[in-house]
């Protein structure tokens, strides 16, 4: 086998292992934030040494999982919108985002503040772009009025990662989502709201946990 082809094959195998580790870590962190890296390696089908070559520290892995989850979620918008009504897609997408943010908050003890804030800042623009696509689809459908800022809507939807992560929380979240749609359906923001400064909004606000 030519040397170049061998190197390419090795890179492909490394990329597959990288994704396998991220997928395993996503599932296991969601179930138990304290899960060991050895358990994650076993679930991914790799040795502990391989895991540590890809992610030298636990924090490296946690941040990589968060970025991977957000990237996957942003890329899912078109598929989510194609599977039903725009309003249903909006709800499904935000409920998935809330589950990712809950996992991140549950892992907060293992992260340095600056590191996770960098990750939030890095993923904010892609998330905002995805929210804009969801809003555009809802506007075209008629379930949302025009003129709403995606950053405002992202901040407004922050209640989803504050409700309880159980069946009661799901019911409450759906009820609150209905109230959100009642508020943004078929109307534009008031002139007073448009005139108010928006510079106080930061990426941290969109994902800030309740105290």
Automatic annotation (TrEMBL):
Residues annotated as domain HTH tetR-type: 15-73
Stretches with biased composition (Low complexity): 190-200
InterPro entries: Homeodomain-like_sf (IPR009057), HTH-type_TetR-like_transc_reg (IPR050109), HTH_TetR (IPR001647), TetR_SbtR-like_C (IPR049445)
Ranges where the record places region Disordered: 190-211
Superkingdom of this protein's organism: Bacteria
Keywords in alphabetical order: DNA-binding, Transcription, Transcription regulation
DNA-binding residues (ranges): 36-55
PANTHER family: HTH-TYPE TRANSCRIPTIONAL REGULATOR BETI, HTH-TYPE TRANSCRIPTIONAL REGULATOR RUTR
Name of the protein this chain belongs to: TetR/AcrR family transcriptional regulator
